[in-house]
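Could you join me in thinking about how sequence relates to backbone shape in a protein? We need material for that, and I hope you will provide a protein of your own picking. Once you have written the record down, we can walk along the chain together:

…
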Amino acid sequence: MSILKFIEIKKLSIFDNFSWNCSEDFRKYNLIFGFNGSGKSTLSNLFNLIAKNQNFPSEKKQDLFDDLKCSDDAKVKFLCTDKETLLYPLTGDGHNNNKSIYVFNSNFVADHVFDGRKGKIQKFNVAETVLEDPEIVELNEIIEKKELDKGKSESEQEEYKNSFEAIKQQFNKKFRETFPSGNLRNPNFPDVQSIPTENKSDLELAIRQKISEYQISKDQAALIADIEKLGNVSFSQISLDFPSLKTLLNTTAREKAVTTLKSKIETFQAKVNEEDISKIEPWYRFGKLLLEKSNQTDETTCPLCNSNLNNTIIDLIKEFGEYFDSSYEEFKQNIADHTRQLATAQIFCTANKDSKTTLQQEATKYHAMLENKMPDIRIDGLTSQIKTLTDLVDDKGNNSSKIIDFELTNIQSAIENYNEDIKKLNDFKDELISTLQARRKSPETLETDIRRLYSKLIILELNGHEDKNNVKKYHELSSQIATYNNELIQHSTAKMQRLRALKLEAKKVGEYLEKLGINHFTIDLNEEDDNENILIKYNNSEKIRKRLRNTLSDGEKTALAFAYFLSKVTTEVKDKGNTIIVIDDPISSLDDNRLYQTAYLIHKEFKDYRQLFILSHNLLFMKFLNPNFRVKTSKSCYLINRGCISDLPKSLQNFQSPYFYMLESLLEFSSDETPNYEEARKYLPNYIRRILETFFSFKYAQLTTKSNANQSAGLEYFISDIIDFETLPDTSVGKISKDNIQDKLSNINKLCDGFSHGNTQHLDESNFITDDALRNIALETIDIIEYFDGFHSTNLKKLISKQTEDDNVEVAITAAG
């Protein structure tokens, strides 16, 4: 796989909405030049997002992406050979973001060598590297065999796991028929002790019963209401005093009356119809009361006929009293008691009938959980018999002298049978209440019970028949794998100890340090300190130094980091043809000699890899690199500038100097009728300053200041110390003349210095470069160069014009082809 282009870089650091616009795709060798702040570091980090996790872990990818992104829709998209698309973050459009890519940049240095505080060299990943050491070779063979055996056991075990998952899904589907939003929780493979003793049929029956209980328990309020409803249901037995009732019906209350009164009453009763008798007896009772009142008021006249009763009233009162004595009162009370008993019995019959209806409804509702059926009893045939008895008692009460002869045996027997049936209904009601109270479980408890039963069923299904014992076989494989792991740890430890003895990292890094021209110190690794493990020894001293930050210069740290990168890649990579190398500025603080050695070493070590990407801001380093990759069809050169990637301009080709490129940009801006001022403000002030400093450096042969040989001569230095404005020719070019050239240069320096160096004080002083001011200083810069050296200015314009014409011809040829 080769990377052809960035299809899109959206909202990532300096890249806003980049899409590929270059004339060529990436090739085998790709040189990318860019000034500081152009986006090189971001570009190199984008390769980390698609590197294999061993080189750049997934969690670091996420952290890196979060640090780079400017909005939630940020993304990067690569196009590779065979039309493969790589995308980060991963979506359906991208896949397999796990490529063999090694990136050298500031992230690599911080993670593997020096994080700014401590020096710590990470161990090489040599698990797949073939080393020549015999002991390592033997250990690798043993480890390979153990890993192969372990892999076979893991494959067998994986089949059991897959079967376990399939069975869980099968029963989970059934479980969700009752619990639509639930899932069975069987996260771990069961152990042998968890195999249930029940058979499949028993477990399935228990599940069905529990599901029935669960359906009821879901409405606890209804269940409680039904229990309370049944508690209010009552069945009452009927109690009648049959001996007393029989005596009552067969006895008369007139047997003690005096003969005279009895004769009078009987004579009078004989004159009236039988149905009127009930009206006569109350009249006699009232007559007695009238006689008593007459006697108390000394009136001896009959209240009924006005006869003189002076001699007979006492006798009449006595005769009335004898007839209506206490025995008659007892008779009437007896009538009332039996009437009340019969009325209560009638009420019980009606209430019992209603209670039976309620009980029948509840029994039907909960029949699935009842062991016994409701008794099939008819209790509605007694009402008419009680009604007959009631009528007889009423008849007797109205005619106390009437003897009623009625056979009570059949009714008494019917009531006894009725009471037995009532007891059966009461017993059944109590049983139903007890059953419902036993089912008063919470839905959560029942769901837990159902889950437990399903878990048993899953394990039973997984284990298969007794001759299969799948659970046992699975755990036997686990034991085998654990044994292999222990053995692999032992052999890997032995290998690590051997590697430590070989000091592979220190040895390889030392070799590459020499190739980079660093031979005045050596490094070793402190195997006892994982926190800061780099030991440094200078050749002129026996002292071992441990603190990298205080020991090595910036250039030496850069060389050490790149030497480690070279060592790591050449040690770990077996398949160069499928590995991509990305290198971002490996030459910080290196002198010219080491720049050349680094360029030569990069070509020597990485020319046979699948692809090579080199990014740098250093033109001299790129100039050293360029000739090493001579095959034009395998090399592409690009410019990265302000978050855009384009073809390398001809003014920068051969990487001689950025002077022509910056001057070309200045001329293009000045000649553009509608320039992009907002974009130009980001780079043009810096370009103007550097153009003038470069021009004056060669014009006056001044590379440094007089006071400091290590400090480059700046524009301000030329204005104040070098240019003799009094001896300049008295001529003018555009708006530039001898009289104003010093002021013009000072103004240009004032405006450009803050924007070039980021000096906030200067920015405050110059405030903001307006569109007019930016155009004026651009035009004035061109005029100043022409003022000082018209020949130089004329030839520069011709060179740039010729390059533009050549570009147009090349575009036309490409289009025609």
